Amino acid sequence: MNTATITGRIKASAALVDPNRYGRSDRSAMGRWFWEIDRVLLLLLAVLIGFGLIAVAAASPAAAHRYSGGSVRFDELHYFYRQIAWIAISMPVMIAISMQPRDPLRRLSVIGALVCTVALALVPVLGEEVNGARRWLNLGVGQFQPSEFLKPFFVVSMAWLLSLRETDKSLPIFSLSAILLGIVAILLMRQPDFGSTIIFGCVWIAMLAIAGLNLRILVGLGIAGMIGVILAYFFYDVATARIDGFLFGEGDNFQVENALRTLTAGGLFGMGPGGGTRKFGLPEAQTDYIFSVIGEEFGLIACMAVALLYLAIIARVLIKLLDEENSFAILAAAGLVIQFGLQALINMAVNVQIAPSKGMTLPFISYGGSSMLALSIAMGLLLAFTRRNPYLTRSPYVVKWGGESIKA
């Protein structure tokens, strides 16, 4: 082998292990994304998705047994393999969205919110009924749940709307946002989907608080929300059945009672992967009650770790927003992570029997194509709105204390 050949191979090898690749001097699209993205948040999401895949693998035999009628031909890991496929589709979507600038994502979200709202209006007419509710549209190649995709688009659109108040305080922004929320709430309750209605309402109030709405008005909205739940109890059959079952033990409480027994059956450390037996009695082990499967097979300590992981994601985003100067980015990112955390909280509360059954999945843990893809869009938007240019220095907060200005 001659000297020129050896030199060429050395240069080729050096290019593969170039220490400057994705370094701070890299100005390529991927290089800028790598340094601007919140890598801690990305890592937390990756850990959550990985744990979710393990949980679906644990719940898959129970779901397969239930929906196959005990047929031996039905693969016990059927839902696990399908979840891998959905993750393979969803993760590139999340990364692709996280690489986009904020302005195109704002426009995309407004268009997405309009499309999903129209689809939501078509669900009671064209949707397929599953477990007594019409929430899905059949697209031939699969089912599409408009409410799941509407969640992130609604939050970003609402953030854009509320941020307009900075440019013109005379605009009736709060009234307009209330009207839009009312339209979505009516469409959701027709399905019926009372749980998602509550999430949309709570996130809206939280975003109003962040946008600086008067405290008295916020308190009034909170009271109005409680009155709304009371009225729903008396005039909305779904809410009546769920609340009666939760408070008075009336009706069919098999699901939530069995979920709690399953969750605590494993004790602190669980029965081990594949060792759970009570999960075979759960009606939706792979979706609504997967948190109980985690408790049985991996123990209450694992359940606590999952809860802390959600808390870490929420805390990371809120801390990241402390020095953000763009009001739209603050509202959008805060709204997305509050919605994410609230959905997780409600699912876990149902599993431990401190909230009535809602039919709501555990984010990135539960099985589901629509849920996984919609959450990936939401987290892609969140990653995009929390991106920071490492070459820009942000202005520190200046606080007046004792007549003297100091840096916070």
From TrEMBL:
Q: Which InterPro entries match?
A: FtsW/RodA
Q: Where are the bilayer-spanning segments?
A: 40-59, 79-97, 109-127, 147-164, 171-188, 194-211, 218-236, 298-319, 328-352, 364-385
Q: Which reaction does it catalyse?
A: [GlcNAc-(1->4)-Mur2Ac(oyl-L-Ala-gamma-D-Glu-L-Lys-D-Ala-D-Ala)](n)-di-trans,octa-cis-undecaprenyl diphosphate + beta-D-GlcNAc-(1->4)-Mur2Ac(oyl-L-Ala-gamma-D-Glu-L-Lys-D-Ala-D-Ala)-di-trans,octa-cis-undecaprenyl diphosphate = [GlcNAc-(1->4)-Mur2Ac(oyl-L-Ala-gamma-D-Glu-L-Lys-D-Ala-D-Ala)](n+1)-di-trans,octa-cis-undecaprenyl diphosphate + di-trans,octa-cis-undecaprenyl diphosphate + H(+)
* Swiss-Prot/TrEMBL GO biological process terms: cell division; peptidoglycan biosynthetic process; regulation of cell shape
Enzyme Commission number, as recorded: 2.4.99.28
Q: What are the subcellular locations of this protein?
A: Membrane
Gene Ontology cellular component terms for the protein in this record:
cell division site; plasma membrane
Per the record's keyword annotation, is Calcium included, yes or no? Answer: no
- GO MF annotation list: lipid-linked peptidoglycan transporter activity; peptidoglycan glycosyltransferase activity
**Principal cellular location given in the protein's record:** membrane
Query: Where does the record place a coiled coil?
Result: none
A Pfam family reported for this protein in Swiss-Prot or TrEMBL: FTSW_RODA_SPOVE
Which keywords does the record carry? Cell cycle, Cell division, Cell shape, Glycosyltransferase, Membrane, Peptidoglycan synthesis, Transferase, Transmembrane, Transmembrane helix
Membrane topology qualifier: Multi-pass membrane protein
Family assignment? Belongs to the SEDS family. FtsW subfamily.
Protein name according to UniProt: Probable peptidoglycan glycosyltransferase FtsW
Please tell me the species this chain comes from: Sphingomonas edaphi
